[in-house]
Each structure stands twice: as C-alpha cells, then as structure tokens.
Amino acid sequence: MNELLEDPDALDPADLDPAVAGQLPRTFRLSDRVKLVRNVLPPLIVLVVGAVEFLISLLPAGQELWAHLLFYGLVGPAVTYFSVEWIAEGTRARERAERELRDLYGQLRASHAQLGAVQALMRDLTDAADMGAVLDVAARGAVRVTGATHATLTVPGGLSGSARGATLLSAPSAALFPLRVSIPGGGALALHFDSPPTPDTESLAQALAAEVARGVEAVRQRTLDLMTLYSVDQSIRAERNMRRLLSRVTRTMADRVGAEARAVFLTDQDSVLRLEYAQDRQGEARGGGVAPPFALRVAQADGPLITTADDAGEVFPDARSVLGIPMRDDEGLVGVLMLGDARPNAFDDARVSLLALMAGQATLAVRNARAYLYSEELAISDERARIAREIHDGVAQSLAFAALKLDVVARQLHNDPAKAESEVRAATTLLREQIREVRRSIFALRPIDLERYGLLETVRRYVLDFGEQNGLRATLDISGDVHLSPGDEAVVFRILQESLNNVAKHARAQEVRVTLHGGSRVTLRVQDDGAGFDPGQVTGRVSSAGGLGLLQMRERVEARGGLYRVLSSPGHGTLVEAEMPQA
C-alpha cells in the first residue's frame, strides 16, 4: 500500500477496493492521459491549423482577418482548456483514490492493533494463575482493546476486577457514556467511554466478554482439578485399608466425570488381574473375580481406552460406556481402573489426562498400602517369633522347672514330708512369678487407642494401669501445652511403653515417676529407683516386653527430629529422656 502512495502511476482500478474503483473513470491512469495528449495533440493541431488555413484562404478578401481572430482567439484557448481539464480530472481522480487508500490503510492498521490487543488478552488470560488474576488481566485488556476510560468486570461469587485507561478520573463520572455487556455463564463487563460507543465497539465488547468467559471457565476447571488431586492425595495419605482406599479414590474420580460405576482390578502374586473393589447402582461387589477381556486389553495398552456396547456390559451390567485406565509404575503393571456409565459415549469429552494422573496417584497409593500391609505382616511375624522365644526361654522353662520340682515332691512326699513341703513352696513361688510375667507380657501387648483418647489421656490411663499391674508406685506429672503430630504422638507413647516395660522386667524398682512437659519442645522423662545398669553394655539389646532395644528407640526419636538419652548406673536407678519438636 505504501508503494501505491509513493508511485501514483502504479494506481489501477483493478488494484483497488471495488467500491473505490467503481467511483473512478475507466481511463484512470494519469500517465496514459498525459501520453495521449503529448503524442496525439501536436499532430492533430498541425492538421487542424493546416485545414483551417486552407479554408480561410478560400474566403473573400477582408474576411481572412476575422476568421483568424475567431479561430485563434476562441477555438485555440477552448482546445487548450478542455485538454488541461481532461488531465486535471485524472489528477483529481488519483487524489480521491489516494485519500481512499489512506483511509483504508488507517482502518486496517487500527484493526490490526485491535487484533493484536485481543490476542495478547487471550494469551494473558491463558497464563493467569487464579481467578483474581483473570479479572485484573481482563479489565486491563478491555481498556486497552476498546479504548475505554474505565472497565469493571464482575463474576458470580462476589469477585470483581477493574482498570482505567488514559484518564485522570479515579472512577467513572456521569459525563461518560456507559456500555454494559453480559458475560456468558454469569457476570458482566461494564465499560465507560468519553464518546458514545459505536456498533463496532459494542461488537468488540461482546467478543471480549466471550473470551473472558472462556478464561474464567478455564481457571475454574484448573481449580477443580487441583481440588480433585488434593482430595485424592489426602485419601492416599490418610488410608491404609486397601478397600477403603480404593473406594475413596475411585469415588473422587467418578464424581469428577459423573460416572455411575467404578471398579479396580489389581494384579495378585501370580500377576493375574483380579477384582479388588467395585461399586455400581446395585452396591459394592465381592472381590476376587477374574478380570473381563476389556480389562486385559487395557492392561496391555499404553494409555486409557474407551469401549461401548458388549464390552461395557461385561464390566458393568448396566453400562453402555466404560473408560479403562492402566495403573503402572516403574515396577510394572499394578492394576486397571474402570469407570462406567449408562449413557453411550459418556467419556468422549472427559478430561482423560486428569483421570490418568489421578490413576497414577492411585497406583502409588496401592503400592504404599501393599507395602504397609507387608510391613504389618513382617511385624506380626517378628512379634510372634519374639513371643515364642520369650515363652520358650522364660515361662516355658520356668514351668518345666516347676513341673520337675513337683515330680520330686511326689517322690519325697512319704519319705521326707518336710523337704517336700519346702519344694512345694518353691514351686508355688516360681509359678506366681511366671503368672506375673505372663500378665506383664499381656499388658505390654495390649492395643492402645491413641486416636480415640488422645496422647495425654492415653498416657494417664497407661501409667495408672501399669502401677496396678506391677505393684509399683507410679506417678505422672503433665505440664505445659503438648501439641504433637499423630506420628510423633505414637513415637512418644511407644518410648513410654518400652521404658515402663523395661522397668517392670529388669529394674526391680519400687517407684517410677513419669513426667511429660510441653514447652518449646515436648519432653518425656521416665525415672525409676531400681537396680540400674551400664548403658554401654546393653545398648543394642532387644527388650523382652516390647521388642525395641535402646538403639531402636534412639533411632525412632532421632528420625523425627528429636533427642533421646538414657542415664543409668548400677545401683542408682535409670532415667530415660526423649524430646520431640512441637507440631
């Protein structure tokens, strides 16, 4: 277009807008007119002058002068005038075309600037982190695109954003011209102008409102996705029971897409997919069943699959559409997660990428739950082995020794009654001691419900029961504010339990004092007046009651950022102290 303005001879009606070209003469090119006048007019003048002079020569004498004056005084100037006017008309047409082109160029430049501003607004809306940022970006973009002096954007929920353009007014005044546009989905965009808005401005404002609606909906979707992922993450952290875990995770996923049925098939120890959890309109289904063919196809696929018709009915009886997502991690296939719905093509518009991410979290949850169950099985197995060892090395041998004494009593009963009576007393003492030992073991193994009573009440109950069970004076002193995380509470209570068990088993104490103080840190002290011991000689030994030695207790406390120490010496009792950071 600049070339057209710089080169007037390049103007041609065929190169112009039809509305502009229609207003111009067909012989528009000025250069053609000048060329025509330059090439045709001189020979034509020569011919005309020659012809006129010949005709004048034929006139009678005396009329030649008037004929020359008439021709050269009137016809010559008239020809010159019309020739120049003909060229001037082309010049004026060219000037009109130039003005039309300049106006068109200005309109195109303004339209291009508006388009660039709209594209920048769309990009900024996409990059906005939250709803507040979307509203601020949209308000500033509306001012920039439309040229308004003020813009205010409101959405449902009481949120709003505002911006102002090149104006000194902090708020719209009555002298401004308002324009209010509704936003699809709720809310409004209010604009104020110095002059009445044109229809084009109104159309532009409508287009901006549609873009703002898309940006707001995108932020809502992102927020909902984050809330869903957070819910799934909380389910992973809070639940160790496999069925409850799968129920929570799949319910969150089903609610996200409006699915009516859900199921999870997990691989067993033989790598066979079996039903672990399922629920539809009829309720929960019994697990253990073999996976249907569609689940096997999903297990072999690289990503989610969607099926309808017969395959959907094999997974859920009333389903006409099923989405299957493989559950994999670095170790291989963990299982397959299924969502079903009675509507055909129910999952065509589903956010499959989000569901796949949630399935990945469920995979991690299943691995963690299985590891937890396996660790529980190992702990139970170790505890059973320890109890069996204790019974074999302690109670069983003592009972066997008592049985031997009673056999001796049976043989001495008639020959030496006094000796037999003494042996009976010794066996009775031994049996009573073993009964107390069995009671101590049962008390140490009794489950404690920290979640139900809380740490302080559980400690109070345990210390009171411990004194009664073992015939000791047990005192408890609690002071300050104690705020620990659930995991730290379990560690503190386990340290108390192990320390008191060691007192009952080894200390031969008459009194034990327990102190729990909450300050900048929570401090637990267990002190007895028993026989004491040399900590250097027994640090790695496993206790007989709880299964934790001093080294294991130290590792548990230090793993949570705490401190653990034992002060003792033979004949001077023992002090166990543990410190944990406040929550």
UniProtKB/TrEMBL annotation:
Cofactor: [4Fe-4S] cluster
Subcellular location: Cytoplasm
Enzyme Commission number(s): 2.7.13.3
UniProt entry keywords in alphabetical sequence: 4Fe-4S, Coiled coil, Cytoplasm, Iron, Iron-sulfur, Kinase, Membrane, Metal-binding, Transferase, Transmembrane, Transmembrane helix, Two-component regulatory system
Pfam name, any one: HATPase_c
Coiled coil (residue ranges): 87-114
Principal localisation: cytoplasm
InterPro entries named among the record's database cross-references: GAF, GAF-like_dom_sf, HATPase_C_sf, HATPase_dom, His_kinase_dom, Sensor_HK_TwoCompSys, Sig_transdc_His_kin-like_C, Sig_transdc_His_kin_sub3_dim/P
Recorded superkingdom: Bacteria
Keyword Cell wall biogenesis/degradation: no
Keyword DNA-binding: no
Transmembrane segments: 36-59, 65-84
The reaction(s) this protein catalyses: ATP + protein L-histidine = ADP + protein N-phospho-L-histidine
Molecular-function GO term, any one: kinase activity
Domain annotation Histidine kinase: ranges: 386-583
Task of the protein: Member of the two-component regulatory system NreB/NreC involved in the control of dissimilatory nitrate/nitrite reduction in response to oxygen. NreB functions as a direct oxygen sensor histidine kinase which is autophosphorylated, in the absence of oxygen, probably at the conserved histidine residue, and transfers its phosphate group probably to a conserved aspartate residue of NreC. NreB/NreC activates the expression of the nitrate (narGHJI) and nitrite (nir) reductase operons, as well as the putative nitrate transporter gene narT.
Protein's name according to its UniProt entry: Oxygen sensor histidine kinase NreB
